Amino acid sequence: MAGIPTFLDSLPAIGYVFQFIGYVLANLPVIAQTTVAVAVPITLAAMTGVMCERSGVVNIGLEGIMLIAAFVGWAVGAAAVGFVPAATTPIFGITPALLIGLAAAILAGMAVSLLHAWLSISLRVDQIISGTIINIGAAGLTGYLNNLISRQSPTGAGNFAPLQVPASVANVPLVGWLINALFDQGPIGITTLILVVVFQIMLFRSRWGLRTRAAGEHPRAAETVGIDVIWLRYRNVVLSGALAALGGAWLSMEQTNSFQPNMTAGRGFIGLAAMIVGRWTPVGAFGAALLFSSATALSSAIVIGPPSGGLGTFLGSVPSQFWDALPYLITIIVLAGLIGRSIAPAADGQPYERESAT
Prior knowledge:
- The chain has 16 helices and no strands.
- By secondary structure, it is mainly α.
């Protein structure tokens, strides 16, 4: 029995497969923790899309909202360093400057979402065009402002620290690695896990969720039973901006303590893909986000600590650009397989206009 793994590893092509599986299992704790961390902004972007599209509003401006929130959170936090105490909490490393920056990021995300709501709901502009304008404008504006601020060489407000899971818990057989992966995160990451569960319950087990789904499926019928569709769509789009803003803040205030132009790197669009793969449900979107982020985590593990033997030689010969593109390739493949199978809300993207009283 002990010689079976050696025999399988020695087989030409199948041997590489078994070696790869063994490599993944040996590095599972690190890969799982990275997978959950990388999934945070994708999940938040996906839940933003779920809240908007369940209400009947398409929002492809997630990339722009996240980018503006990332910049505002970092810039305001850096500016607040000299005006507030530098006290740090023992958990998460929270400082007043970080809290101020996070609050500013959320407000900025909601403000941009309000702009999208006004264009899409009140002016009834094409929602795809509205979101595209936000994405292009955010990239140009944050890049320009970052160039201005970077000349002053700001130090930043630091970043949120991950929660340290006790070694006695992280080393528990069978489940320790999973507990560590889920909770060895910063405050935004752990909040995201909580929001997934709360949002799932609220969407399918609350009055607000029923009204939201009604506005996205048949807004005119919803209006006849007393639901203010216009106000509900406004409220949901603006509140969803706070979720996208948390994703942007995670990039500049939790993953790093700096801002880089276009640092969202397509996460908003991958979030929309996760929303579609997850069939417009928070839990499904989170599962899809984990699928996409696992490609990033796995490629990072291979680059940092490649497997030994023939498999390591083979993987080392793969161009690094392939590993960079792997998450996007998986996104395209998964979406291509779901075309026609994942059905959006019936009124998604359709502007709503009340009938006149006469």
